[in-house]
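Predict fold of Xyloglucan endotransglucosylase/hydrolase; 344 aa.
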Amino acid sequence: MGSFYMDCKMKILISIMLLWFASSALAINTKTLAFREAYSKLFGHHNIHRSANDHHVRLLLDRSSGSGFISSDMYQYGLFSASIKLPSDFTAGVVVAFYTSNGDVFEKTHDELDFEFLGNIKGKEWRVQTNIYGNGSTSRGREERYFMPFDPTKEFHRYSILWTNETIIFYIDQTPIREVRRTEAMGGDYPSKPMSLYATIWDASNWATSGGKYKVNYKYGPFTSEFRDLSLVGCRVDPIQMLPTSSNNCTAANSDLMATGLSVMTPKKRKAMHTFRENFMSYSACYDTLRYPEKLPECEILEAEKRWFKENGHLKFRHHRRQRRSHARFHTAVDRSLGQQWVM
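Predicted 3D structure, encoded as tokens:
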């Protein structure tokens, strides 16, 4: 009876948590753009489907091809945001990516900021990975991986990358999940050149699920990822001259960026970020002492986090984390019931 009661209680708390995540996306107030205003098709043109109002895009992966689109301009710093819904059912080997990069312009010294959504076998949750590369530093990637705190195939959730000359913050809905502050020791590893925004879906059977153990099974296809509420706030830059495309562009863009409030890490937002990471992070390069015997310069090592990870940076015992999750969800549910803005 006790076990049944706890299961019911957990289901109620999880439902409240999902409602909170869904509603929090509304609090990020940025202007959305139609596809034709800011984007163009990148590959798999026949697998890109746009809505009648041009504000909703579906990307498909089938046996013939994946698909993707790219921003029409490059940006020097900015906020890159979209509401995304991921494919459901058996999605092993499938990767959906929402990221910034300049690899097509700076092939050997490219910068990149990634959300990579990693599919899984049926019944297992999606995971999301964030990456940071600067100046071609792919051998010094700064990956972190997290379990999703909701089912990303059921509803749209907003994913945002904030990139300034001082800090990078990844957001899920209105919750910051990762912050990297620029340090002198990072040098060129901090992304600093103009980047384009990309959204793609593709077959990554060779690595995405259990190191390539599970491949894409096209009998469950086509796999569809959906994007809406596409938002770009940043300074348009000529990638060759490294100069703004208009004299007033950067001033206006910086004002718009500051107006979102997302670059300000308040105490409540920092607490929310630590709570998310403690409960959902499953890998961090900061705790991977095999790969990085000397700590990466931007890493803040927290003893509360460190004790949960092996020396290879992966989580030790997930079932312990599940117990801690129920505690976090309880406090989140209480905060929500009191009408508090948990992360502002």
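The chain has six helices and 17 strands.
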